[in-house]
Amino acid sequence: MLQEACRTAAQWPNELAIAVNLSPVQFVAGDLCDVVAKALQVSELEPSRLELEITESLFLNDTPSTLAQLQQLKEMGIVIVMDDFGRGYSSLGYLWRFAFDKIKVDRSFIANVFQVDRSARTVLKSIIALGRELGTDVTIEGVETVQQLEFLKAFPVDLVQGNYFGHPCSIADLAPILMNHTHARLQINKAEGLMACRKSA
Fold first, then answer.
1. Alpha-carbon dihedral sign for residues 31, 37, 43, 46
2. Rounded to an integer, what distance in angstroms lies between the CA atom of residue 201 and that of residue 197?
3. How large is the average pLDDT for residues 43-55?
4. I want to staple 6 with a disulfide (CB 3.0 to 4.6 A). Which of 45, 55, 139, 156 is the partner?
5. Among 18-22, 52-56, 71-75, 76-80, where is mean pLDDT lowest?
6. Residue 103: beta bridge partners?
7. What is d(CA 40, CA 38) in angstroms, rounded to the nearest whole number?
8. Long-range contacts of 192-197 (CB under 8 A, 24+ apart)
9. pTM above 0.70, yes or no
10. CA–CA separation, 95 vs 170, rounded Å?
11. 172 versus 192: which is more confidently predicted?
12. From the centroid of its chain, how far is CA 194?
């Protein structure tokens, strides 16, 4: 699955990355770094375009081997992500054990942000502020409505994801989306180039 994901992403525009969820079981054998390195080599995907997502369940059997493998993956240039942050009870304690590149805030927070009880909103704001202090990118999961998106625009959130932007689809269905993305990017670059030429003239 990892090799297929890397092979597919290698065909995408260079600014796009792919995220793959890892299971705690994959850390048990101790050869995960070799498996990832082989997938990158075969696909010729740049390591920085691969994001490996883990959940706090990985740390339930907190061993030096687990942290060592995470650190080695990070040193390879791969982006390490704490997924579903805040779902369990121990997520906060893991942020000082390992320097994650990104945290993805569990969808339950944005889902409850407009409840009469404002505690979800308060905690969400605190998590975003914590991410800023740690220098960690923050992604908000589960954005379903324009109201939720407008709420998040008031905060320095790096990324948002959810069904408001799109639904899961096959690789075949993704192709025209990527083509539209590339076309739009080229149009923006062309417009910026024209603006630069006019200013210099």
1. positive
2. 6
3. 95
4. 45
5. 52-56
6. 82, 138
7. 5
8. none
9. yes
10. 34
11. 172
12. 33
Spatial distance between the Cα atoms of 157 and 140, rounded to a whole number of angstroms:
7
* SS3 category, 102: strand
The verdict on 150 and 192 lying in the same domain is no
Which residues fall within 8 angstroms of residue 119, CB to CB, at 6 or more apart?
none
Q: Which two tokens stand for residue 80?
A: 């390490």
pLDDT digits (tens, 9 = 90+) for 146-179: 999 999 988 888 999 999 988 888 888 887 777 7
Domain match, 155 and 77 both: yes
Tokens 């080599």 belong to residue: 41
Residue 63 has phi, psi (to 5 degrees) of: -125, 155
Query: Could you give the 3-state DSSP secondary structure of residue 151?
Result: helix
Vertex 112, ends 108 and 114: CA angle to 5°?
A: 155
Q: Total domain count for the chain?
A: 2
Contacts of 14 (CB under 8 A, 6+ apart): 46, 49
Question: Which among 111, 104, 107 has a CA at the least distance from the CA of 139?
Answer: 104
| pLDDT above 50: residue 4 | yes
Residues 126 and 93 in one domain: yes
Average pLDDT rounded to a whole number, residues 110-125: 87
Determine contact, residues 17/51, Cβ cutoff 8 Å.
Answer: yes
- Domain of 126? 2-166
